[in-house]
Protein: Phosphoribosylaminoimidazole-succinocarboxamide synthase
Amino acid sequence: MTIENQPPASVAVDLPGWRHSYSGKVRDLYLPDAPSTADNVVSDTDAAVQSAPSNRILVVASDRVSAFDHVLEPGIPGKGELLTTLSLWWFDQLVDVPNHLVPDHAIANGTAASLIPEAVAGRAMLCKTLDMFPIECVVRGYLTGSGWKEYQASQTVCGIPLPAGLQNGDRLPEPIYTPAWKAPMGEHDENISFERTVELVGADAAAALRDASLSIFNTASTIAEKAGVILADTKFEFGVDPETGVITLGDEVLTSDSSRYWDAAAWQNGTTPTERMASFDKQIVRDWLAANWDQTGTPPLLPAHIVEQTAARYRELLERLTSA
Ligand SMILES: Nc1ncnc2c1ncn2[C@@H]1O[C@H](COP(=O)(O)OP(=O)(O)O)[C@@H](O)[C@H]1O
Ligand SMILES: [Mg+2]
Structure:
């Protein structure tokens, strides 16, 4: 673990009914303080002193932004709320899809509203606590980023052979599942083969993660296309619900942090890779950082115009998707 990768120490705030348990690069997790049973939550009318059942977790999205596995300064104002709103919207879209395959961890009802402290309202999700798999379930529908680099060298992406003649930004013949091992804080996630995921989580779970990831990706792509948006790639995280043993979709889903989104019209009509991949995600941050930092030591401060552009693009994606 390296010091510079740690989020600022000030991230943990006092939330009535909750205690801080973990801070990732972008999100802060809280567990119930003095957990209560599910029954007495509903009968308690004083929201300020209510405690959630012990199997709940509060996932709070901050305005922190990370790129190349580093948390950058300053944050993107409003980002935490935008990402939480988008995640919840996606969970909602996916819940009724027959081939969705797995349930999700979000609890979005009246009880949730009353258990989320005012201080983090809008950027917190009340969830079932899962035993997370140490696997980032990446699905790619298009060729770009690190995949494009590898393709140019070996005509593969994460070891998966692809047809010759593809260009940066091209659609793949079909979406591919390219899992990564979720490295502990401060280390880089590592691409792994499907066989390696079998070794890590067992054959049944490995297949379930792959199938659910591809299925959710396909469903989400169709929904995004209706909004004139291309879902180029994304990352899911799953866990096991310890009460039921059921594999459950966790984390954030299909946000601009966990996905690459492009404008479909620009992709269709653009003539250069830059024009084709007009993005609604943090590519703006990645591009600026790649051009202004050699990836050693502490990353430089993001300039105000990069912060503003990123915030505007995150807002635009949410508006496009949710108003389609
Ligand atoms: N329902 C859940 N139960 C337990 N852990 C979860 C759940 N959903 C997400 N997580 C974990 O919460 C963390 C979210 O914080 P994040 O900022 O993304 O951290 P990281 O830098 O570890 O990716 C992740 O480690 C993710 O695996
Ligand atoms: Mg994460």
In short: The chain is about 35% helix and 25% strand. Confidence is low (pLDDT under 50) at residues 1-6, 42-48. Residues 24 surround magnesium ion (ligand 2) (CB under 6 Å).
